[in-house]
Amino acid sequence: MEHSIYLYKKAQYKHCIDHRIPVVLPQWLDDSLRWMEKLDSRAYQFPTPIVYNPTKPPTLFSYPTLEHLTNNIGQTLIDQIIYFGTEIHIKDDFKSRLVQSIKRAGGTVSTEYNPQVTIVILKYRSTPEAIQAFEDRKWIASLWWLTNTLAREYMLSPLSTLLDYPLPPGGIPGMEHLSISITGYKNIARDFLRRLIIHTGAVFNPLMDSNATHLICGSKKSEKYKETCHRDIKVVNHLWLEETFMLWKVLDCRNERYSYIGEDVLNQMVGRTHLLQNKLDLWMNPQTMPDYLKSKHAYEVINMDEKGSVDIVKPRKAALKAIRVLNSIVMPDANAYEKELRSAHSSSKKNADIASQRKKQKT
């Protein structure tokens, strides 16, 4: 018996553990059949399966403010030694507060990579630093994982959600031809999807202009969704985007898994797709590294966050880059989202007025 599907029977569970038989979630079998390959079972393995933790979900947080970092008090990183890779560049004042937060959480920061380091914070996978950390069996995580962890006040595997792990160095071949819009998702879920679109190598299209090819849709009530009825635009939920990134290939939009659009349900499910260890392993070997395409546009966005932390030393260049990304991506999407909210409010008010008139007519 290679694996035992967990059936919540303590005797069987103990027998398997005693005989070193991996105990996994039924989801391991389900996912293996879905993707037509035997998946690495470690993410599904008890006692701490990455893909399922009902008491400690992989909650997403926006990039924390300085006040947010100041307020964290949990001993989340107890005994952890953290090393920031050479490609991580953040503003001095923010890094100072971040280091203070790490110390309050029970961790320490090492200024150099050494055998005592337990967690390596990197921007990209497949770099020499990433490969070395992988070979040394260190935890490899992104800066967003670190800030998410401090905000959650509990530690989850960086594989628990897609952007908690360092990014690929480019986009997915084939995605560069796609122009993707978002509707029906809000707050951090929307920001997460926006970043994910860019990291796949696709073009983020906040206004769903004439170049749009896909709409990531969380609600059929939106104007963007109604507009797709008259245009050749593929409508999918966020799972298509997340699983495309996870498997590193453009998936078929016609899969019924991606066609479900439920009201007020999908937004809270964003970010729950986990990474697969066997897929990540491929990036750590030059012989097996997946194909990817470089994107200047994606590079600019990846290296900028709302705090102005950019991968450029010269202040003027950093400021110009931040302004360019703000003007071309962040503000147009914010305006599009505000338009969605106004449209939804107007529609709700109109429906309420109609219902009120009908009630008066009956009386």
Automatic annotation (TrEMBL):
It comes from the Eukaryota. SUPFAM superfamilies: BRCT domain. Residues 1-46, 72-163, 175-258 form the BRCT domain. CDD domains: BRCT_PAXIP1_rpt3. Residues 341-363 are annotated as: Disordered. This is BRCT domain-containing protein.
